[in-house]
Amino acid sequence: MNQEEMLYGYSSIVIVVILFIAIVVFNEFGFRGGRFVQSRTDSEVKSLTGSIQASILGLLALLLGFTFSMSMQRYDNRSMALIDEANAIGTAILRTQLLPENYRDEAYSLFQEYVSLRVEIGQLDLTKTEERNKYNENTANLQNKLWSLAISATEVDPRPVTTGAFVKSLNDVFDSQGKRNALLQMQVPEVVLILLFMVFISSGGIMGYSAGLSGKRMFAPIVLVSLLITLIVFIIIDLDRPKRGLIQVNQSVLIELLNEAKK
């Protein structure tokens, strides 16, 4: 987790509630400002204000689509990385049968521990840095043990179709673990989210100002639009928060692999 990220430390529900309140409040300020200058504003200015409002709403739609696409892509990448890691580990476990007989049981036992660690760390919040570091250290120790075992096995049986195949699958396991860890650190840049929030709040203000110029309050539609916007923002933030939000990558493939390994 990037320590420079500020919003990640706050609940996504708190963020969207504050955003919703800010949009409604700025809409009210905008309405009152529009009412204040209504009598001194001609129809041409009112028409121009409507054009500006349409431009801001268009920018809002563009940013929403762009940001949602970014967060969804990262979620999909994390899901595929977990599947790739589970497949790599499953293949390596099967290839333990290609090792010299006196190494098979030890390799299988180490893989049982390894999968168990990967399942446990997959359920751990990224903000719990110390606990994650401990799990990562234990994972690295198991990787070293597996690699040492592979080296010893190649000295006994150097054939590429037996021990060599196990070594290759072991490399794939290590690579898939590194890739998955890297993807956990990839979120939508916070500056993009902040820009998105600013456009949301500005759109609320300009909609209120436009309503004030027309002299007609549209409270219910504004609240509905603000609610829909904040719900979309909630989905964007939640998709972008691995191990923290309500939307989580399904770990069933690793859990099934762990259950199979324990049989």
Descriptive key words:
263 residues; mainly alpha; 79% helix; 0% strand
Description:
With 263 residues, the protein is mainly alpha-helical. It has one domain. Helix content is 79%, strand content 0%. Helix 3 runs antiparallel to helix 4. The protein is rod-shaped, with a radius of gyration of 27 Å.
How do the helices and strands line up, and which of them pair or pack?
Elements lengths: L11 H26 L5 H52 L6 H22 L6 H28 L6 H22 L5 H25 L4 H21 L12 H11 L1
Helix pairs in contact: 1-6, 1-7, 2-5, 2-6, 2-7, 2-8, 3-4, 3-8, 4-5
Total helices: the number is 8
DSSP strand (E) fraction?
A: under 5%
Q: State the helical fraction.
A: over 70%
Shape: rod-shaped
Domains counted in the coordinates: how many? 1
Helices and strands, in order, run as: HHHHHHHH
Largest beta-sheet details: none
Structural class: mainly alpha
| Average pLDDT, all residues | 84
Low-confidence stretches: none
Short recap of the structure:
By secondary structure, the protein is mainly alpha-helical. It has helices at 12-37, 43-94, 101-122, 129-156, 163-184, 190-214, 219-239, 252-262. It has one domain.
